[in-house]
Amino acid sequence: MKKIPLHWQILIALILAVIVGLPTTTETMLFGVRLYDIMGFFGQMFMNALRMIVIPLVFASIVSGVASVASDRGFGRLGGKTFVYYLATSLFSIITGLTLVNLIQPGAFFTGDPESLGLSTDASEVMEKVGGRGFGDLVGVFLRMIPVNVFQAAAEGQFLAVIFFAVLFGYFMAKVREEFASPMTDFWEAMYRVMMKITLWVIKFAPIGVFALVGKVVMSSGLDVFRILLLFFITVLAALAVHFFVVLPLILRFAAGLSPVAYLKAMLPAVLMAFSTASSSSTLPVTMECARDRVGASNRVSGFVLPLGATVNMDGTALYECVAVIFIAQVYGVDLSITTQFIVVMLALLTSVGVAGVPAASLVAITLILAAVGLPVEAIALILAVDRVLDMCRTSVNVYSDACATGVVARSEKEKLLV
Questions:
Q1: Global pTM?
Q2: Which of 21, 34, 242, 399 lies 20 to 30 Å (CA to CA) from residue 310?
Q3: 37 pLDDT band (50/70/90 cuts)?
């Protein structure tokens, strides 16, 4: 019998959670135990598993990735252009998402108590953790990026410090003599692969986690959560559309002198493949074929830019992470300061790279960012109901941004393209 794909399992789990949650209440008993508590137990186990893998996964991913780039003798000009593009477009996408979520404020339309949505953390407690930070605390953000003790920083969830140290470690690991660098490179590559295996194993339990987390929310709030999510859904789609139909075409036009309409038409098969599979890696062969045969980019450019982009350039994912965290803060009635929003932007930018190769990468990254800014990790349950559809949309943005990078870099290398 053919195995049901994971995304269909998650969708089935979501439907079952609604079916089970609607006719029951927080006091419904099952075998002498409250069903609400059973849901909470399995949901918390899944969330704990996600939190468990974050630090080692992100650290190993960044160290091995930075080391491989830093050790590449042919990196030079082509790599520099590619990384500048990826950094700029990811930052543009995050700022777009940040702007729209602050303008629309989808979470502010919820005026009740977060506990009515099955979120146990008291709103005033969250306000105390997150609020009260001014612009003057911005200096502290940079100070915390350089940890006195990296192990203590990891234990305390100081993720910016961990990421900063990982970048430094990976870069200078590639600069020591070969006999010293080689065993460390092998170790961190092996560590990354092991963490990927563990992550894939944890993600297999996502349907159970989704069933438990969403079921718990539906039991306590009914379908109100879906009405709250509608505006969040629209906000994310609007932000993705602005980046896809405005920002990226402007970059193509003014940075490369290319026709945005003709370019989108040439890359449409890859965009549609990304939408249907929700996987940048699975779409990569189609993306490369379109870039070579329909755009006319050389193997030298497309063979470097696109595989790298499928790993580190996640415009749509970074945008989604930022909007999701701000939305959750709004649900709790927390007005995030400029400093805290700056932290969210930084972490969205860095984690979109650090966990990009992982299925359901946004869940891992959002978990990390919520913990870093003092918001309850369990609140991720709020967005699970619409995550799958938005995953398809943001993956399309991820892939098209990679494709646009190919055109921009190819034109900067004086290549003649077909579009």
A1: 0.74
A2: 242
A3: confident
